[in-house]
Design a protein that fits this description.
The chain is an alpha/beta fold. The protein is built from four helices and eight strands.
């Protein structure tokens, strides 16, 4: 199983073996088929699973970024949310997180019957050009535990893995 990061926009270009997992507090409505139910998981017309969330173990409970669009600085070193997020990640049991991601990957591969290696894609809101994102802390945390998690790259709307 490989793990990448990306953002919601790119899910439209995923292949069947790519499993998007939201890391955010609040997902776009379309990610749950406009049901307004954050527990709703469905397959889109290309059979890509949408609605799976990892925020229950990756995000600090009841903590949200306060700056949002009003953040002028875009300096992650001064962002209380990102500082707290890094601290929170360090409290997690890495093996538990990996086992959960492996279980999701294995279950979807078994249900769908695809032969390709499952690819977990941790989804954030911000584009890679925005440094104010949980993308950096996530990648750093995985790297600290020996797992290289990079941003999923695309060429002509096709993922490069």
């Amino acid at each position: 199983m490989r793990i990448y990061t990306s953002y919601f926009y790119h899910i439209r270009h995923f292949t069947r073996n790519m499993i998007p997992i939201s890391t955010t507090y609040s997902d776009p409505l379309w990610y749950h088929d406009f049901t307004r139910n954050y527990n709703y998981i469905f397959q889109d017309k290309r059979r890509i699973y949408n609605g799976i969330r990892a925020n229950i173990f990756l995000m600090p409970k009841d903590y949200k970024c306060e700056c949002g669009p009003s953040c002028i600085e875009h300096n992650p070193a001064n962002c209380d949310f990102l500082k707290d997020y890094r601290v929170h990640l360090d409290t997690l049991d890495f093996n538990y997180v990996i086992k959960q991601l492996e279980r999701i990957a294995r279950d979807i591969q078994e249900i769908e019957g695809f032969e390709e290696e499952p690819i977990i894609v941790l989804i954030v809101y911000e584009t890679p050009s925005n440094p104010c994102s949980e993308r950096g802390p996530l990648q750093d945390w995985f790297k600290k535990h020996g797992v290289d998690v990079k941003e999923l790259q695309f060429l002509d709307k096709k993922p490069i893995v």
